[in-house]
Amino acid sequence: MQWPGIIGQYAVQEILQRCIAQNRIPQAMLLVGQDGFGTMALAIEFARVVNCYRPVIDGHSVTACGECQSCNQARSLQHPNISIISAIPTGKLDGADELRKEWIDGLYQLARQLAHDGYSPTRMEGANEIRTVQIRELTRQLSLSMTQRGRRVAIIANAEDMNVSTANAFLKTLEEPHADTTIILTCARPDRLLATIISRCQVITVPALDETTLSRALTERGNHQPEEALISASLAQGDYIAAEAFLADDVRQIRDAAVDLLRTALRGKDFRPSLTAAVHDLIGQRDRQRSTAVASALLLWLRDAYSIIQAGSAVQLLNADQREPLERFASTFARADFDAAYRVIERAVADVERFMPTQLVMLTSMMELRTIFLQARRS
Ligand SMILES: [Zn+2]
Known about the structure:
Shape: elongated
Number of strands: 7
Mean pLDDT: 91
Distance between the termini: 59 Å
Order of helices and strands: HEHEEHEHHEHEHEHHHHHHHHH
Strand content: 5-15%
Number of helices: 16
Helix content: 40-55%
CATH topology of the largest domain: Rossmann fold
Structural class: alpha/beta
Low-confidence stretches: none
Number of domains: 2
Oligomer: single chain
Radius of gyration: 24 Å
Largest sheet: 5 strands, parallel
CATH class of the largest domain: Alpha Beta
Bound molecules: zinc ion
Strand order of the largest sheet: 4-5-6-1-7
């Protein structure tokens, strides 16, 4: 049975439900994947289910009843057995031994939001580090006896936010077994975790959402128009939070900017200064998400142009509002090597993912696209 509030991820849910149903709940779990894939939403729902007083069990499937006292407490994350630890801002008071009240309040707000929607932000504003003092507080709490029956679940959001001394303190916590306790780590970058931490956890990979599931969630949960949801889902690479961000940022605006960039690259001899300026205006030096969105939007637009070339103007387009400019582009560049153009854009996305300077990557790719398309027009 599907857990409420979770988008897709049937296989992961099955693994989690099965270990609850068979009472083989691990002491520590690492959910690897981005927040927008559902790592945090899954961790919170897991905590609810293992604490529910009247879980609904059907074979290997377990869901929370949603009505008992524990479920009611868990709904707003005001549950003595459930806690979320997430990064706090580090600043002048670096090394401070106490948690400031504003941080505690911030973390409390964050937890409440996450209880309401597991796809909310998992870091408070300006937060960059999980501090040792937070892990010490966790260890202290775990050493106390439980005040309510159920299972203690401590969720460490974005475990890669632990610095070296925090990670070492945490390793000690992991090494001491605590009765009826599960520690869940969520992490998008396991390469930044200590190998000794990973080896003590049951590792569960939470994969990117497929485009259909993602666009359906955008229309059903987010009330977005199906057409925009579809474009945004293709841009977001399986990440629900990123997809929502694109929609807030207006996907059409990103797409239009991407197409303008290509047009600038295809101008006459003096295209260079305006192309450099356009790239600079559109994306920051390290703006990976935006660069990927621009590149992906351009890819989808070119795919539409190519399907017009292949199938004629009656073909169904993803960028349906762009039919006219797409037809013009298709007739001008009908003989261009679109496959080569796709490869250029796909490589740009990969380079950006590998932390290469975004503006340089975009500029180089646009020059290559210029060569590909202008060649076709000349011949
Ligand atoms: Zn319940």
